[in-house]
Amino acid sequence: MPSPRSSRERRAGRPEFVSLLSQRGPAAPDSPSRRRESGGSAPPPLPEEDCMRLNPSFVGIALSSLLAVDLWASKRLGVCAGEASAWGSARPLLKVVEVSGHGIPWLLGTFYGLCQSDSSAAREVLLNLLFALLLDLVLVAVVKGIVRRPRPTHNKMDMFVTVSVDKYSFPSGHATRAALVCRFVLHHLVLAVPLRVLVVLWALIVGVSRVMLGRHNVTDVLFGLLLGYALYSVVEYCWLSPLNAPALFALWTH
Q: Is the dihedral of CA 21, 24, 27, 31 positive or negative?
């Protein structure tokens, strides 16, 4: 049987234990490191938008790298940008190529052919070529005005007949027109194989000459060629004929 003294000692010790617990206060929340040490679940990952803020954008890095490579390659390939350049002696020849892809000779030549044509089929083809050339001029001017990319620093502003938007570089109007005319001619003129090859080579030479003369960067020309190629599909879709545009064809009826 326990003695009265031992029972009194146990009763006297309980308040001391309770007072120690009360001094410790409420248990502090576990830290993430303590939860990991105790085998708890890992903290949830950051939202995707937070990761995008913390880490550089892959698309941004890719575009910056592409721009740097584009500028470097364009400067290295601008071998005819001036008379003192590596291939400066070929500059006059490339300027002739430049004129061959300019919009004014094509517009004047198409308009003259339209006035002189006696065939309804020829007038239909020429009228749609004129429509394609005008559409090309408007589209390129709009894109240049929106993008406003300056021309390469090594370019000499001695171009053949320029307007206000021609101070911008993207896209290359010559490359756009060359691809458009090339596809148009191959689809609507019956040419021998050597002549068809020459038409394709002309379009490619016009595009390459824009970089060699220092007029454009490489991406300006590549996008211009793609844009001109796609623009022909728009012309085919909106093809003008005496059935859907009789008023236009009545103007050219002799």
A: negative
81-87: which pairs have CB atoms within 8 A and are 24 or more residues apart? 81/152, 81/154, 81/155, 81/156, 81/212, 81/213, 81/214, 82/154, 82/156, 82/214, 87/212
**E strands of 141-245, at which residues?**
none
Q: Which of 93, 249, 105, 245 is nearest to 177 (CA)?
A: 105
Cα separation, 161 vs 158, whole angstroms: 9
CA-to-CA distance for 204 and 212, rounded, in angstroms? 12
- Secondary structure class of 115 (helix, strand, coil): helix
Residues 97-138 have pLDDT tens digits of 999 999 999 999 999 998 888 888 889 999 999 999 999 999
pLDDT at residue 42 in the model: 54
CA dihedral 147, 153, 157, 159 (to 10 degrees): -70
Active-site annotation, residues: 174, 216
Query: What's the number of CA atoms in the CB half-sphere (13 Å) around residue 159?
Result: 26
User: Which H helix or E strand runs over 199?
Assistant: helix 193-212
- Chain centre to alpha carbon of residue 215: 18
Distance between CA atoms of 182 and 178, rounded to whole angstroms? 6
Helix (H, G, I), strand (E, B) or coil at 1: coil
Q: Is 190 helix (H, G, I), strand (E, B) or coil?
A: coil
Provide the percentage of residues in the chain whose pLDDT is more than 90: 45
- The amino acid present at 58, given as its one-letter code, is F
Alpha-carbon Rg of the chain, whole angstroms? 37
What single DSSP character describes residue 156?
-
